[in-house]
Design a protein that fits this description.
220 residues, mainly alpha, two-stranded antiparallel sheet, elongated
């Protein structure tokens, strides 16, 4: 999902949460006394949708999702309205952190969208015959992806080849990928220096495809 789609979904579920709260009723029983409930079917549906959204927006292993799952679990003789108040707090926290850009998953989504746009630009340049420019643009995506991986894994950033070496040494990816990135960097460097005799149009086409796959894996 894109940032735009996830943001829209948070807004939709926030509105559904308000509608769900409006179904609150006060009930009485000899066993439990006075307690408050909301529509059980709407509540179940909202929880399923919200749990899925938080997993997509914050990450399957995120504290937000774990807190939501924990908040859903009922205690003995507890009304669903009491549960609603707990899960609502987690949902609102996840929504705020997502919209504020405080989540790693959000930064990855933004990076993925930016990379996707630049890959499209590189593809269009290649299709129009601007092979050298296409290689340079794809090289920017490659370098940005390496920098992001280094930052995410506590490694220093620098020149493309050094980042590639450091990531391979840290076992972030294997030696085969390291060698392929070295080859991609060579095409990028040749293009940046105008050495068009050192690569072909097909080399650049393959480079764009490889960089796209690499970026998608890194930001997934």
């Amino acid at each position: 999902m894109t940032i735009k789609v996830l943001t829209k979904r948070f807004t939709e579920l926030a509105l559904q949460l308000e509608a769900l709260g409006a179904t609150r009723q006060t009930k009485h029983s000899q066993q439990f006394g006075t307690y408050e409930v909301v529509d059980s079917e709407l509540f179940l549906g909202w929880c399923v949708k919200s749990r899925s959204l938080i997993g997509s927006a914050c990450g399957k292993d995120s504290e937000h999702l774990q807190a939501f799952i924990k908040a859903e679990k009922p205690f003995t003789m507890e009304s669903n309205y009491t549960i609603l108040k707990r899960v609502r707090a987690v949902f609102c926290a996840a929504k705020e952190d997502f919209e504020g850009g405080y989540l790693v998953s959000v930064r990855n989504l933004i990076q993925a969208e930016v990379a996707g746009g630049e890959i499209e630009q590189a593809t269009e340049l290649w299709s129009s015959g601007y092979t050298t420019a296409a290689a340079v643009v794809a090289g920017v995506v490659l370098e940005t992806t390496l920098r992001t991986l280094c930052e995410a894994n506590g490694l220093s950033t620098g020149k493309l080849n050094k980042m590639n070496d450091d990531l391979a040494k840290a076992a972030i990816y294997n030696s085969l990928k390291h060698k392929r990135i070295t080859s991609l960097a060579a095409v990028r460097n040749s293009a940046a220096h105008g050495k068009t005799d050192e690569f072909t149009a097909q080399d650049v086409k393959a480079m764009i495809a490889d960089v796209q796959r690499f970026a998608e894996e890194a930001f997934s």
